[in-house]
Write a structure and sequence with these properties.
The complex is a heterodimer of chains A (109) and B (117).
Chain A (H helix, E strand, L loop, with lengths): L8 E4 L5 E6 L9 E5 L6 E4 L13 E6 L2 E6 L8 E8 L7 E3 L3 E5 L1
Parallel strand pairs in A: 1-9
Antiparallel strand pairs in A: 2-6, 3-4, 3-7, 5-6, 7-8, 7-9
Chain B lengths: L2 E4 L3 E3 L5 E8 L8 E6 L5 E7 L6 E3 L7 E6 L4 E6 L8 E9 L2 E5 L3 E5 L2
The chains are: A mainly beta (109), B mainly beta (117).
């Protein structure tokens, strides 16, 4: 089955930029979506289709893709951005077509 | 605005079944699939399947086939997920989510299911 790999953790100082990677085979051919999940809460969609933002999501959240890696960038990081971030794709060849990444815990120092 | 409101926490014994509901509001219920995704303690998200509220059609992840049933009641804009033959491995938070072209744009608040003897 398809696998998306993320670093377990990323630490960043307030005001700096956090970058979270998501690696998967042929990810360049798939649309990548990103979710923010705070402890005890449901996930929230923050970026879809590689780099678009849903209504209400700050411009500080942006997505990009290059080669086999997608990246979520959070600029001007705030304490409130501390959360788990998960990438997700739809893989038609998998018996679990909706695939989530392993998740990255972003810690604001 | 879109809201998905799920039923409350459940405690079940091994071998039992659990049925979780998800009431939708703020959009046309029959226009979008409802997906179910679960998250075991300290683990990632796992997609379980979807129900098409318009037709009642379903698609389940192979892992859950034969053990899960997803239904809907369009008269009350509510989707249901019924999981049977529970084991301790099914202890998790179960989420419903509104589907949109390969992603999930709105999520329910989650329902904690604990399986314990």
């Amino acid at each position: 089955s398809y696998v998306l790999t993320q670093p377990p953790s990323v630490s960043v100082a307030p005001g700096q930029t956090a970058r979270i990677t998501c690696r998967g085979s042929n990810i360049g051919t798939k649309s990548v979506h990103w979710y923010q999940q705070k402890p005890g809460q449901a996930p929230v969609l923050v970026v879809y289709d590689d780099g678009d933002r849903p209504s209400g999501i700050p411009e500080r959240f942006s997505g990009s893709k290059s080669g086999n890696t997608a990246t979520l960038a959070i600029s001007r990081v705030e304490v409130g951005d501390e959360a788990d971030y998960l990438c997700q794709v739809w893989d038609s060849s998998s018996d679990h077509p909706y695939v989530f990444g392993t998740g990255t815990k972003v810690t604001v120092l | 605005q879109v809201h998905l409101v799920q039923s409350g926490a459940e405690v079940k014994k091994p071998g039992a079944s659990v049925k979780v509901s998800c009431k939708a509001s703020g959009y046309t219920f029959t226009g979008y699939f409802i997906h179910w995704v679960r998250q075991a303690p300290g683990q990632g998200l796992e997609w379980m399947g979807w129900v098409n509220p318009h037709t009642g059609g379903t698609d389940y992840a192979q892992k859950f086939q034969g053990r899960v049933t997803m239904t809907r009641d369009t008269s009350i804009s509510t989707a249901y997920m019924d999981l049977g033959r529970l084991t301790s491995d099914d202890t998790a938070v179960y989420y419903c989510a509104k589907g949109l072209t390969g992603m999930f744009d709105f999520w329910g608040q989650g329902t904690r299911v604990t399986v314990s003897s």
